[in-house]
Amino acid sequence: MDLLAAMRAFVAVADANQFSLASERLGLSRAMASKQVMDLEAHLGLRLLNRTTRKVSLTDEGAGYLERCRDILSAIDEAEQEFASRALEPSGRLRVTAPMSFGASHLAPQIALYAASNPRVSVELILNDRHVDLVEEGFDLAIRIGRLADSSLVAKKIGEMRLIACAAPSYLSARGRPQTPSDLTDHECVLYSYASAGAVWNFTAPGGRESVRVGGRVACNNGEAICNIAVAGLGVIAQPDFIVAAHLTTGALERVLPNHAMEPRGIYAIHTSRRYAPLKIRSFIDQLSAAFAEAKVV
């Protein structure tokens, strides 16, 4: 029995909760993946997985052994990558997920540059405004904006963006201009469905920080769509500068509360590795950090 191969098979099955998906990720047949895990259980004299016809789950012993396997495999991978990468260029498949608007406007050009500079890397960019499960859905890297939930994922800040509160001139003519953040409670606000802070907008001004709970009849899970709804005159929005900038330039939208800046939001590159990330991930994150810091557009 190849003990390391069996450990990798066990980790893959535990992450996927099934043999079929795990075998695809490993490039093995389902039968071979199952045999490797069974051989490992026989070697240890322990049952690591509970099996049903549709999925598997960890036993108590399996849960404990899984963490040890992760540590051992991570250490092996780190050692190999540390020395092999000195003579190798980035290679392999890089799967990246990012918010739709930011991904289209800022990340796509960086993907093109990275692919051109690294011919041994194939890149797949999936744009989605929901938070994906990197392990479950097989992503190497996620770009996320705003407050991060506590997790075991590794996050590196690669830039910042700021929300801007704005509305269409037609709306402001009909409903008046808010003078303070608290005035927004009397206005229609178009909300972002996936906002981590919910319907609370935070502002800063010379007098200090002020938070206001806003409300409205319309919510949406995409920033571009929210912007278009605001242009149509439905209400006030708080959206990233890179989404509203063009509409502010043309006058389709006007900034509200110009003396009250909204708090900046961090832009993060997130991956699953603990102490180690493959060269393809590290080099792409380095490129994004340099590009966004230099451009100062986010």
Largest sheet: 7 strands, mixed
Q: Regions with pLDDT < 50 over 5+ consecutive residues?
A: none
What proportion of the residues is helical, as a percent range? Answer: 40-55%
Kindly state the mean pLDDT as a whole number?
A: 88
Overall 3D geometry? Answer: elongated
Q: Find the CATH topology of the largest domain.
A: D-Maltodextrin-Binding Protein, domain 2
Q: What is the CATH C level class of the largest domain, in words? A: Alpha Beta
How many individual helices?
Answer: 10
- Kindly name the structural category: alpha+beta
* Number of DSSP-assigned strands: 14
SSE arrangement, N to C: HHHEEHEHEHEEHEEEEHEHEEEH
In total, the number of domains comes to 3
Distance between termini? 52 Å
Radius of gyration from CA coordinates: 24 Å
> Any guess at the CATH architecture of the largest domain?
3-Layer(aba) Sandwich
Share of β-strand residues: 15-25%
